[in-house]
Amino acid sequence: MNKNTLKRVFSALAVSAVAVSTTSMFASAETLSNPCDLQDNKEAAYVDFYSTSPNTKITAAEAANAETKLNITIDKIDLTLEQAKANPVQTVNFNLAGEELKISTFGLHPIWDTRLTVEKSGLKYVKRQDAFSEFSFGEDVSNLDKGYLTVTGMCDMEANSTGSMFSINFRIPDNAKAGDLYPIGIRYQNPGNTMDQFTGLKYDSEACMLMEAYVFTQGITNGYIKIQPEATSSSTSSTTTTTTTTTGAAIDTTTTTTGKKTTTTTKAKTTAKPKATTTKKQDPPKTGVAGVGIATAGLAVAIGTAFVLRKKED
Fold first, then answer.
1. Minimal CA–CA distance to 193: which of 3, 2, 25, 7?
2. What are phi and psi of 210, to 5 degrees?
3. Which of 178, 206, 207, 276 could, after both became Cys, cross-link 230 (CB 3.0–4.6 A)?
4. Is the pLDDT of residue 314 over 50?
5. End-to-end Cα distance, the chain
6. Model confidence, pTM
């Protein structure tokens, strides 16, 4: 560990004893909505709470100039009703992509449709995945019934891989029906004393601040678990047109068949050219941070807490 990393570790240990009470106090003052819990069976686009927060100083337009542009995407899972009933617990990945990764610290708030139930993966609700395999993780799950949790992580080196950062298991409700859609996303929270983060070792540099602002203003794409609608029946009608030519006079014979009805029309023409075409037409179907509840005895968890609770600099 280098000198800066040791400082961060000791800082984490120092603040961990008051982490829960401090963050819970500020979280209680938050009134952020949960865009993924409208329960209208529609996709929920990511909402930029970063730009609208009175506690952030970088605009979305400024963030667009970031040298490092990272993107977080959440799985979109499509199932038939039969598949949902047979496998009601689905693993949803939170994925990271970007050309030049410089992440060493993060604090995020996954949110979801509360018709879903979060289930443990082993001893934890959040499972670390390959892209952040070297990170120490922490989680606070005191607000699962409200449709969100807190996940934090830190590494003494900057991540340089892409793929899934972590995953969460969601259980589809027993009363799920065809056409149901359950949005899953991320919400930025910054009540003033604590803040979500997605940054590097030089977190107070302009490059890191712009990188973080880009992620939280325009770099996140929400996902969902979707049960496909029931298939609807459709009708097909065929139209066949035939033109015949005899010596001297041309006679056009048109036969149209729609369903069980057949109509034949014959008329004389002065000129005609041999041709035969068949077309088939298909009708369309009818159709806050709640606080990082992290134990002080666990150094790995304490590390994550320190960075989610970092005081903002003016």
1. 25
2. -70, -40
3. 178
4. no
5. 29
6. 0.69
